[in-house]
Amino acid sequence: MKYAVIQVFIQRVTGLVCSIAATACLSISVIAGDATIASASDRNDESYHQDYVYGEPAEPSDAWRIARGGRLYDKWYAVTDVDKPEMTHSAWPASNTMKSGATTWRCKSCHGWDFAGKDGKYASGSYNTGIPGVRGVDDKDVGDIHAILMDDTHGYTHDMIPKNDMLHLAFFLSKGQYDITTYVNADGTVNGDAERGKAMFQNTCAACHGFDGRALNWGDEENPNYIGTEASKNPWEVMAKIRHGHPATEMISYAGFAMQDAADVLAYTQMLPAK
């Protein structure tokens, strides 16, 4: 009898159990202090995943807004799930013929992962435009930044980026920037504690990337492109992804944690296999 009671208790307090592929999911509903189990068939599981990717909390925290704004800065048309622009941005300089079309509409394409534009990593290379960074709007009024985004130079409209998202982007530019040189050196080395980053990676990032970082491959079998590859090749971009997540995916964000946490994770990812 006692064993049966224990079994019932365990069943009643079973929490959310989800596989990465979301093939099975159980959830707890607590009503008046009583827990009951609802099967996955009672819920539209896909809508919950899509809401995380494209939706917004009822009461968004500042950290969530910064993460959302950071992803918009990265690739706003993926974040908002709209068709990407086909024409090259009118402010994109004719001197740069290496990029065209939708890429030229991404904030990061002009201003860089380091927010420094022509005075940072984009002083040379395929994204060299001669355009300054966005450090000048750090801590500025969100409304003023919103107006800049919609001026004749930038040319964004609420038909392209909904007003609420435009304000999240402006909030990010005001409150979410950081001095990347504190964490990533000019040679790409990272000022982080890799051992501490290992603990965080293995308990968060590994859920998708795998313990060795090779569960996701953006390349192919002959020329793989893992998180370890990216972290060594472009730590400035990977820092942004760790901090804000990746557009249009369920990648988690470290925006709610200290900047040093992201740097420590980045330091560890540079130790993961590149091939």
Summarize the structure in short.
This protein is mainly alpha-helical. 39% of the residues lie in helices and 5% in strands.
3D structure, described in words:
This protein is mainly α. The protein folds into 3 domains: about 40 residues, no CATH class; about 120 residues, no CATH class; about 90 residues, Cytochrome Bc1 Complex, Chain D, domain 2. Helix 10 crosses helix 11. The radius of gyration is 21 Å and the shape is globular.
List the helices and strands and how they pair.
Elements: H1 2-12, E1 17-18, E2 25-31, E3 34-38, H2 45-54, H3 62-79, H4 107-111, H5 142-149, H6 163-175, H7 194-203, H8 206-209, H9 227-233, H10 235-244, H11 259-269
Antiparallel strand pairs: 1-2, 2-3
Helix pairs in contact: 3-6, 3-10, 5-6, 7-11, 9-10, 10-11
Describe the structure using short key phrases.
single chain; 275 residues; mainly alpha; Cytochrome Bc1 Complex, Chain D, domain 2; 3 domains; 3-stranded antiparallel sheet; 11 helices; disordered N terminus
| Estimated radius of gyration | 21 Å
Q: How many helices does DSSP assign?
A: 11
Q: How many strands?
A: 3
Q: Give the integer mean of the pLDDT values.
A: 88
**How much helicity do the residues have?**
25-40%
Main β-sheet, in a few words?
Answer: 3 strands, antiparallel
Distance between the termini: 56 Å
Whole-number tally of structural domains: 3
| SS-derived structural category | mainly alpha
Order of helices and strands: HEEEHHHHHHHHHH
Strand arrangement, major sheet: 1-2-3
How much β-strand is present in the residues?
Answer: 5-15%
Poorly predicted ranges? 1-41
Question: Tell me, what's the shape?
Answer: globular
